[in-house]
Amino acid sequence: MNLRVLYFARLREHFGLAEENVDFAGATAADLVAQLQARGGVWAEELAAGRAFRVAVNQDIVTLDAILPDHAEVAIFPPVTGG
Amino acid sequence: MNLRVLYFARLREHFGLAEENVDFAGATAADLVAQLQARGGVWAEELAAGRAFRVAVNQDIVTLDAILPDHAEVAIFPPVTGG
Amino acid sequence: MKILVQAEAFDLGAEVNAISQGHTDIGAIASFVGLARDSNEGSGVQAMTLEHYPGMTEKALAALVDEARSRWALLDVTVIHRVGRLLPGDSIVLVAVASSHRGEAFAACEYIMDALKTRAPFWKKEETPEGERWVDARVSDDAAAARWTDS
Amino acid sequence: MKILVQAEAFDLGAEVNAISQGHTDIGAIASFVGLARDSNEGSGVQAMTLEHYPGMTEKALAALVDEARSRWALLDVTVIHRVGRLLPGDSIVLVAVASSHRGEAFAACEYIMDALKTRAPFWKKEETPEGERWVDARVSDDAAAARWTDS
């Protein structure tokens, strides 16, 4: 399936990427994170176990066991710091 | 001793008096209240045991056992309702 | 710190700007405006008149602001309370509190309002279709004020 | 109800007037303004830039305002959050809540701020003498937000 994946703030800067289309054969948000981590480098570093990041699917924050629907808008970003 | 006694809000209206000088031979705020109550009529009614009123001495709220200094400014008023 | 008792309307925006202007250490300003409502305890209210105890009012307000400043790290406080005749929709009271952090600003602002309601010498008289009446003190206001001494 | 994400400054007085104008059932308006400070965690801050997630931001803010409205009897709510580059002393966020009674207005205003701090997708990057840095989420903000679910 195909996902639109967005990155924000520190992740956007470290990945050098705000947005991409990702071919995805897995099922959950955790599977997507594992697929991105497997790219190595900054991807492995920023998405390592123990690093704080959040995942939103179609603009709602989800837990890593969430199932990703086809054509979902998935966003990965650091804990928020507004206000 | 001589006291300046002020009344506010409902008490001012019922007593028909905003302020008076009172010759006082007692010691405490309770003594003053008893002296005023002894006037009978609205005084007895408004200052009866169980009626809610507050006493301030020189602009600080006090309890009825407070000693009244000579020439004190004593105010008697209903519970406050501002804000 | 600014404490005013006045008949005139106040301007929340101007008061909060006056607190923040030229300051770069303020992270949070919590503020409160109390307004005259058109009904109370089941009756329509056409207008109200606020009476106060000149002299004691300012002293009582200063005392409760000092208490708030001793409990929380505050950078500035403004309290303005109107007196005289007010119509429904008119503003009655303003409390604005500046602090570095929002928790302290919120707590102090609510503390000052709760304390003011039970300890500052203001009295409200309402004009209703049934005639004039003095507003009775609320049990809920005593409970709100008591929270701060219980904790 | 009004929710805005904008680069422009806002006017607290005008926003609160817009809430109260023509209403005579509002007894209380609690409001909060968050401001950019000139220091954070021991460093000087010369400026900050607020990034957000367009689309999700408005959705997240609307969701937490709805939660507040389901918990408390509110008459109106305004939330405005700025994005882009801000200088120390600039306002960042405004939350204003109108209710019949002050306890509900205060609680809902603080709830919305606490929820916004942990759930609305905004990120701050600070410019300091040591260079640029992304602000880390605060443990104290998580604790503040958690209060509302514990109770």
From TrEMBL, chains A, B:
GO terms for cellular component: molybdopterin adenylyltransferase complex. Keywords: Nucleotide-binding. GO terms for biological process: Mo-molybdopterin cofactor biosynthetic process. InterPro entries: Beta-grasp_dom_sf, MOCS2A, Mopterin_synth/thiamin_S_b, ThiS/MoaD-like. The keyword Nucleotide-binding applies. GO terms for molecular function: nucleotide binding. SUPFAM superfamilies: MoaD/ThiS. It comes from the Bacteria. Belongs to the MoaD family. PANTHER family: MOLYBDOPTERIN SYNTHASE SULFUR CARRIER SUBUNIT. NCBIfam families: moaD (TIGR01682). This is Molybdopterin synthase sulfur carrier subunit. It comes from Thiobacillus denitrificans.
From TrEMBL, chains C, D:
Coiled coil: none annotated. SUPFAM superfamilies: Molybdopterin synthase subunit MoaE. It comes from the Bacteria. Pathway: Cofactor biosynthesis; molybdopterin biosynthesis. One of its GO terms (biological process) is Mo-molybdopterin cofactor biosynthetic process. Its EC number is 2.8.1.12. InterPro entries: MoaE_sf, Mopterin_biosynth_MoaE. Keywords: Molybdenum cofactor biosynthesis, Transferase. It catalyses: 2 [molybdopterin-synthase sulfur-carrier protein]-C-terminal-Gly-aminoethanethioate + cyclic pyranopterin phosphate + H2O = molybdopterin + 2 [molybdopterin-synthase sulfur-carrier protein]-C-terminal Gly-Gly + 2 H(+). GO terms for molecular function: molybdopterin synthase activity. The keyword Transferase applies. It is an enzyme of class 2 (transferase). Transmembrane segments: none annotated. Belongs to the MoaE family. Heterotetramer of 2 MoaD subunits and 2 MoaE subunits. Also stable as homodimer. The enzyme changes between these two forms during catalysis. This is Molybdopterin synthase catalytic subunit.
